[in-house]
């Protein structure tokens, strides 16, 4: 491995582990997942609930997706490696079974869940080691679903914010093709879909949301403060976000993978 590959790996590992430093703020400031998106990810019929389904929320964080799964009636088991995130989940959802653990060594028996749901975390897993683990804990016919809340960059002021964040502008509503399957080893079938989502924010609270993102959370203190000041200054300069509450336009991207 070259020095720059090693550096890239180290930076990814640092980002994957950055969330705990923000655990309380993460729970307050990150957007929820739309019920329709979660239902679709689980392959539950529109309008139906997930009662009777045992669902593993893997990389559960503070429990944002866990809450949506519980609301659909699923019997949820949450697994999360970061002690601070897990503590926040246990504080907010004391009735949910939870375990310390990671995708590469899931602390559950073989064929013990009907679905594995992953919110905003699949990209942090070591695919070669995690996929056999996910396949192992799923019952035959079970589904793996990954959900991501993404800023809607087709809205101009949101694209402007992405530029300040230093993110590539991705116009998902125009470019996403659900049948552009994202291949994962061991799962021959997959599809994907976008769902509308929005997050009620103010300039202040959206700045706090930005602070929970891994790319910002890992910056050195002075650089992070400067980036957040720049984000806040932008938000108070844009008519749509300058005063009071507004809806931050989001899209929730859902992928699902299964074997027959
Ligand atoms: C962006 S947070 C998402 C949390 C939660 N799923 C949600 O939707 O809000 C990513 C989570 O993945 C966890 N994570 C990172 N690497 C992981 C791994 N290898 N296995 C399981 N979870 C991991 C982090 O600790 C963090 O809680």
Automatic annotation (TrEMBL):
<dbReference type="InterPro" id="IPR013216">
    <property type="entry name" value="Methyltransf_11"/>
</dbReference>
<comment type="similarity">
    <text>Belongs to the methyltransferase superfamily.</text>
</comment>
<dbReference type="InterPro" id="IPR020596">
    <property type="entry name" value="rRNA_Ade_Mease_Trfase_CS"/>
</dbReference>
<dbReference type="InterPro" id="IPR051052">
    <property type="entry name" value="Diverse_substrate_MTase"/>
</dbReference>
<keyword id="KW-0489">Methyltransferase</keyword>
<dbReference type="GO" id="GO:0032259">
    <property type="term" value="P:methylation"/>
</dbReference>
<feature type="domain" description="Methyltransferase type 11">
    <location>
        <begin position="56"/>
        <end position="144"/>
    </location>
</feature>
<dbReference type="GO" id="GO:0008168">
    <property type="term" value="F:methyltransferase activity"/>
</dbReference>
<dbReference type="Pfam" id="PF08241">
    <property type="entry name" value="Methyltransf_11"/>
</dbReference>
<protein>
    <submittedName>
        <fullName>Class I SAM-dependent methyltransferase</fullName>
    </submittedName>
</protein>
<dbReference type="InterPro" id="IPR029063">
    <property type="entry name" value="SAM-dependent_MTases_sf"/>
</dbReference>
<keyword id="KW-0808">Transferase</keyword>
